[in-house]
Amino acid sequence: CDRAHQPEWEAGAGSYLAPIKNRSRNPSRRGPPSGPFGQVLDPRSKLVQRWNRAFLLARGMALAVDPLFFYALSIGRGGAPCLYMDGGLAAIVTVLRTCVDAVHLCHLWLQFRVAYVSRESLVVGCGKLVWDARAIASHYVRSLKGFWFDAFVILPVPQAVFWLVVPRLIREEQIKVIMTTLLLIFLFQYLPKVYHSIYLMRRMQKVTGYIFGTIWWGFGLNLIAYFIASHVAGGCWYVLAIQRVASCLQQQCERSDKCNLSLSCSEEVCYQFLVPTGTAGNPCGGNSTTTVRKPLCLDVNGPFHYGIYQWALPVISSNSVSVKILYPIFWGLMTLSTFGNDLEPTSHWLEVIFSIFIVLSGLMLFTLLIGNIQVFLHAVMAKKRKMQLRCRDMEWWMRRRQLPSRLRQRVRHFERQRWAIMGGEDEMEMIKDLPEGLRRDIKRYLCLDLVKKVPLFHNLDDLILDNICDRVKPLVFSKDEKIIREGDPVLRIMFIVRGRVKRSQSLSKGMVATSILEPGGFLGDELLSWCLRRPFMDRLPASSATFSCIESTEAFGLDSAHLRYITDHFRYKFGNERLKRTARYYSSNWRTWAAVIIQLGWRRYRMRTRGPMMPCATENGSSERKLLQYAAMFMSIRPHDHLE
GO MF terms on file (predicted)? Predict the structure, then answer.
């Protein structure tokens, strides 16, 4: 490559790099470009992803705040029932709505700084990010679903209506106009706001692929969405119940000859928390200038049929804010969950339409949201259920075959150990159907660090390491399990990742040489010399020792066929002197033999310098004869490899 004119690269929305063409090079400018709104941000960065999560939660809060405006309307029941607006609750809800809209304004400002995916780059490839600040601002402003949609959903329409329009309509006793206005606000801004939240989530997923990324977040979001839907249904039910009470009051007044009923209280906006209940002259308590003594319209057992609004009568006249909010939410949850089975509407057309809407909404939400929750729970419990079924089948098989309790305990221990380590998933089985290049990259990512922990592979090329990573497979062994016995054919070379393994080699006259293999060690090194032997022999070498697990052990193995393939194709690397010395240095066979040689040399040195270490004459002969016997015994276990 030309080091004097190295190409510049820019990141795409996927995992590739695209060269920058026709752009003036400025060596002093290495960071992301800046614009009038600040430095351009990468939508895949951790900062932007954390902000997206927080912003989506804020939009969920905004969806939950808007229905609270409905509960600002209330019915006073001190004298004759009348309608008023609870100014304290309306003020609190207004502040909450303004706060969540302020968060949305921050998001709107941030969109002028976040790079976007160019549509033209999606024709071929996975998309390229546009980093030019002017292009980002122009694209955001010109998009109808961008700046203008973001600005539309935060228009202070409910605040303006409740503080400017509703008090005047209450004073003019235009109850039907009030309810119609509130429902139009719901259709005009709230439903687009729901679509806006869904659209934002989809738009964020185009770049990063995910937002929250865990099953439990998906479970929680679906549950929150179902709760908000119940909250909205309860709010509409509350408002329509107030309209039915107003209709009842008007009908009673029309039946009476002397009726001077006023549907509005003495004060249209009443701050209930400033006036205790029962205070004389309470403007929130009701009207006293009426001939109606008993509020029959607030009596559940009265002559007026309320239909589905029957249980809302104690709520709309309650002075408790918590009762006003919680009971409609409970009604919405119960009604949506039962698909409106308990609804008994009257023949009033608006009530029938609302009941139909509740039934259809409950069916849709149950199908979508509760169905998604069931999928999430099934994904969480599927592995555990799979483990339980496997253990049950294994227990049935062991009882049928009448295995002894010792073997049964070993099987149970191994299954628990494998579940704790692997999580009930076979990783190699999951990725076996992927394309070869993708599978190789995944296995390199998973296994490269483990392979590099093996000293034997420290100085190998990346190409050889890629081939090793592509062919290794994870292995799990429980405590006290024998990995391989002495004399058995060596089927694979294994590299210890976690745990300790005991090596036992039988010597003559019942003597046993033992050693401990720590993480980073390996066993089955007889295969390495077997693969490099010329002429090649098809018969697998025999294990020179028995290997058993001192504790639960994790390892990865390389089968004999795969090891032979690697050594044949990269023989230039496996035949050098440095690798031969490394293999002998870390080989448990050579280490045991070296320890014996050192002990023998030490004995000879002691005999030359300090005399014999044992009595000169014994019943079996002289000490010199015994030393020769030991030497013959120790030298007989010298490992035989074909690395020379």
Answer: monoatomic ion channel activity
